[in-house]
Amino acid sequence: MRNRGVLNFVLLMVLVGIVALAYGLEQRPDLRAYEYLPEMIFPVAAESFSQTPALPSGKVEQRPILGTIARGRMPLHLEPGPEGAAQAARELINPLADDAEAQLERGGEIFRTYCQVCHGPGGEGNGPVAQRGFPAPPSLLAPHALELSDGQLFHIATFGQGNMPGHASQIDRLDRWRAILRIRQLQAAAALVPAPAPALAPVLAPALAPVLAPTESTVSDEAAPVPAVAAASVQGGGR
Ligand code: HEC
Q: Is the pTM of this model over 0.85?
């Protein structure tokens, strides 16, 4: 009981002290308040976004010298769209072409992960996404795709085309080139599959027409013979 009386007295004195200090101390907003460990508040090193009289621009952070390229960030001087595609066709070659064999494993992985869903395992345009209603891409084994240069394939993989989205944000640049090596490999394998014998072609053409139609093959004239590559790809289905 007695202890509590002492405690109350002490607390009262503390309160009186605080109130006295609050009234008694002069308020000087023009003066900086007391700083504990000021070295931590004002670092010696310059802050990136502050000013400095030491540099001509007056800023700490300096603009990189014109033409500087950050490591691993080689800019791509290509625009989306047909002009960019034409430029890619003129200027780009596959930097991994000389080392194709070693790159194909990774190329196959990239193709399976990012392209196969629409383009199908063999590149015929029959991936599960296309089978469930997404506009089917043309076969990557068709004459049109065979004629596209590596640079054009790279441009399509990077920026997309028509209904196909660009893949630059998902797939690293060299991996896009590797996927293109995989497409070339599929095309080469398809070319090795023998085309149907000429005598069979007229028999096969009507039979194949309904199969080929939904894949939006590049055949526009119905009377035209089925292109050997497209027919071969159907024959070699299930690869
Ligand atoms: C979402 C589905 C989808 C995915 C994923 C996809 N594509 Fe495509 N691709 C398409 C469609 C649709 C077209 C037809 C575009 C058009 O209308 O021009 C196409 C067209 C192409 C063409 C042009 C073929 C030609 O003959 O004109 C190439 C090359 C191609 N894609 C490569 C790739 C590569 C490489 C990947 C993986 C990195 C890929 N695509 C992933 C849907 C897809």
A: no
